[in-house]
């Protein structure tokens, strides 16, 4: 029997089919006599005997069954179904091992072609990508497994042929980076719609579509082009913001404008409060998600801040449990519950009345509010020992404005507990550091020179806090060293801060709580981190200074804003945080910074 699309098996691999003679009892007889050859049958026999017909049918059926059995045995020979090919190579009828070997041989024959640079067009730009650089390869084992599973239905195995596509893998991150390099500035990020307030006036950002490539479709195109050896065109896709310009205009007309057209009365069992339009504008938020869908909501935390003291007659805020260091040991003080408005209900109900021109009233429910951090929870955080401590020194005593700024921010941070997994933001914790918050004018670096500015000196506290968290082995999230190096700070391992643009953040990447303890003297500031010690040691190894530059001499107009300096060399340096645990180095982090040369500023004209 010849199968469609197959070569006839050779003599040595053709399956052997054995047919056994069959007797068919009839009418209770023990045996029957086979019919005589056709030539011996009587010519005038009008009809064959019944027994003869039955025997003939049995013979035909037996032959067919034998043939099918033989063909089935042939079709199921090997692990890979007959007629299966990959990359034009016949793998059918082979064992998995033999198919793997044959496919690898075919890939070896194509090695030069598969290693050749792939021509890729992204938008209007074309470049070549090295397949090895993006991890393009054929997964032989996965391909052979797919071939072995290809349409195992018996009829399909007997008739026809099938082609199985190779399983191609690619490093999607490396491919994405390579394609973005080709894309260049052709990409256009989606402009998400936005509604904000300037005072009580809504300000709108109109939505605009973005233009980029779809990573999944791009990877599919590159896989196919690589195997075919043909140039690849990566399609660019426009992403339309989910909230359209029409919907944005409707939100402004139906919500953003009427929301601040009049105050809202908040009524409770303990009294009433007027919510003015300015407070509504500060708390009504329009948030766009990743798809550009704009959703309005009321931020009750912002509303509380905007209403300020007017809520004092209604609410009593809860007080968290606190921890202090007394006698060299952590001491926990219990907090207390408060009485506060139900935030979820207030936000929902207030949002519902903001579009209205009349009936602008909501009823708030004051509920007992437990502290977020109870004494029991605080005591169970594992804050039991001092993990690290760091001290920097200052001059001028506590009477100087700069020293007072350092002490003010240190007191604000003292006793802060950072829960496991949480990120601490210095700007977020202290808020704005202005005259109202008790800060004074002292030298700050602005546009490359020292000038008087409110809050000068807080960078020294930031550097002290940064080093304390650094030597505790906590995760550095955000910091920026000064543009000039000052010898009161360790090189590279230091940080400045400036409201609101420059922040310092660290994450408590341990399973234990972290307590920030601050203290000061007339000439120093100290920050200690208390928790559970998990590392043997945390040390810094420095590389040599390089690219050293000398300061320039610059004359400035004399006056109260001119601060003379001696000048400082600029340089680049590496610092490595080396963390050991169990006697072994478990982490080695590199920090690098380039310091500019601080000019030598002279308050006065150039000599003639």
UniProtKB/TrEMBL annotation:
It comes from the Bacteria. Keywords: Membrane, Transmembrane, Transmembrane helix. Residues 1-48 are annotated as: Disordered. InterPro entries: Glycopeptide_resist_protein, Vancomycin_resist_VanW, YoaR-like_PG-bd. The keyword Protease does not apply. Residues 1-15 have a biased composition (Basic and acidic residues). Residues 244-362 form the YoaR-like putative peptidoglycan binding domain. The chain crosses the membrane at residues 55-77. This is VanW family protein.
């Amino acid at each position: 029997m010849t199968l469609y699309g197959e070569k006839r098996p050779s003599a040595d691999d053709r399956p052997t089919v054995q047919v056994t003679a069959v007797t068919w009892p009839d009418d209770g007889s023990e045996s029957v006599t086979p019919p005589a050859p056709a030539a011996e049958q009587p010519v005038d026999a009008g009809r064959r005997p019944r027994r003869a017909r039955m025997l003939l049918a049995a013979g035909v059926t037996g032959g067919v069954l034998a043939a099918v059995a033989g063909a089935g045995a042939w079709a199921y020979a090997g692990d890979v179904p007959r007629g299966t090919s990959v990359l034009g190579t016949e793998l059918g009828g082979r064992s998995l091992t033999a198919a793997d070997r044959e496919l690898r041989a075919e890939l070896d024959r194509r090695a030069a072609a598969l290693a050749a640079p792939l021509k890729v067009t992204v938008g209007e730009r074309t470049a070549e990508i090295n397949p090895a650089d993006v991890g393009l390869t054929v997964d032989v084992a996965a391909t052979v497994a797919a071939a072995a599973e290809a349409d195992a239905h018996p009829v399909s195995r007997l008739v026809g042929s099938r082609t199985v596509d190779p399983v191609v893998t690619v490093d999607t991150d490396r491919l994405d980076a390579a394609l973005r390099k080709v894309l260049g500035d052709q990409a256009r990020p989606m402009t998400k719609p936005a509604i904000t307030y300037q005072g009580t006036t809504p300000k709108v950002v109109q939505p605009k579509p973005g233009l980029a490539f779809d990573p999944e479709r791009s990877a599919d195109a590159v896989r196919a082009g690589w195997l075919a050896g043909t140039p690849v065109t990566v399609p660019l896709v426009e992403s339309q913001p989910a909230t359209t310009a029409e919907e944005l205009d409707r939100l402004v007309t139906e919500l953003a404008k009427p929301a601040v057209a009049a105050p809202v009365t908040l009524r409770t069992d303990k009294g009433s409060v007027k919510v003015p339009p300015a407070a509504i504008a500060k708390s009504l938020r329009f948030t766009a998600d990743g798809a550009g869908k704009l959703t309005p909501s009321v931020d009750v935390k912002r509303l509380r801040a905007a209403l300020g003291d007017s809520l004092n007659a209604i609410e009593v805020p809860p007080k968290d449990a606190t921890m202090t260091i007394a006698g060299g040991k952590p001491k926990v003080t219990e907090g207390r519950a408060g009485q506060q408005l139900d935030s979820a209900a207030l936000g929902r109900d207030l949002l519902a009345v903001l579009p209205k021109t009349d009936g602008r009233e909501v009823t708030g429910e004051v509920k007992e509010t437990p502290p977020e951090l109870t004494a029991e929870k605080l005591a169970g955080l594992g804050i039991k020992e001092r993990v690290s401590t760091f001290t920097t020194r200052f001059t001028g005593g506590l009477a100087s404005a700069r020293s007072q700024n350092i002490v003010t921010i240190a007191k604000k941070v003292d006793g802060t507990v950072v829960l496991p997994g949480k990120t601490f933001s210095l700007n977020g914790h202290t808020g704005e550091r202005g005259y109202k918050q008790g800060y004074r004018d002292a030298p700050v670096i602005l546009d490359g020179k020292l000038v008087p500015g409110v809050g000068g000196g807080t960078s020294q506290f930031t550097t002290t806090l940064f080093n304390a968290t650094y030597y505790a082995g906590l995760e550095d999230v955000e910091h920026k060293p000064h543009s000039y190096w000052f010898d009161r700070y360790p090189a590279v391992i230091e940080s400045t801060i400036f409201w609101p643009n420059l922040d310092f953040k660290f994450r408590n990447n341990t399973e234990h709580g972290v307590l920030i303890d601050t203290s000061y003297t007339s000439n120093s500031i100290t920050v200690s981190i208390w928790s559970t010690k998990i590392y043997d040691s945390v040390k810094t190894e420095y590389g040599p200074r390089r690219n050293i530059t000398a300061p320039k001499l610059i004359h400035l107009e004399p006056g109260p804003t001119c601060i003379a300096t001696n000048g400082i060399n600029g340089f680049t340096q590496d610092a490595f945080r080396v963390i050991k645990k169990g006697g072994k180095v478990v982490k080695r982090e590199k920090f690098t910074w380039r310091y500019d040369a601080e000019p030598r500023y002279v308050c006065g004209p150039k000599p003639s």
